[in-house]
């Protein structure tokens, strides 16, 4: 999964990693990352990303696809969703601890027995 590989290249190995499906092309991956922040440019792919914040008080700026840029202060339990096929640029200023779900779009299509669709969502409670 390209977004997972990009995350590992940017912040290092996750504290926890579990995949579902074939090793070469998993349907889903769960990873927990703890890092000191940075500027991240995540290419568009066929992966839906769900991020759950595990730490309070981290300033985050984001820009996804054609959506207007935004910012927030991360809170424990805040959930962000990035749809497939959306380039995402994220700036994290400070120590971050997140649980990320990487879900292959074709897997989600099969689950809903149709075409899966979702909107971009940042820091929802």
Unreliable parts: none
Strand content: over 45%
- Total beta strand runs: 8
Radius of gyration: 14 Å
CATH class descriptor: Mainly Beta
- Helix proportion range: 10-25%
User: Can you identify the CATH superfamily?
Assistant: Jelly Rolls
> What does the main sheet amount to?
8 strands, antiparallel
Please describe what this structure looks like:
It is a single chain. The radius of gyration is 14 Å and the shape is globular. It has helices spanning 2-11, 105-112; strands at residues 16-21, 26-42, 47-53, 58-64, 70-74, 79-82, 88-104, 121-124. The model has no long low-confidence stretch (mean pLDDT 89). The protein is mostly beta strands and 125 residues long. Helix content is 14%, strand content 54%. The chain has one domain (2-124): Jelly Rolls (Sandwich), CATH 2.60.120.
Give the topology, please:
Layout: H1 2-11, E1 16-21, E2 26-42, E3 47-53, E4 58-64, E5 70-74, E6 79-82, E7 88-104, H2 105-112, E8 121-124
Antiparallel strand pairs: 1-2, 2-7, 3-6, 3-7, 4-5, 4-7, 6-8
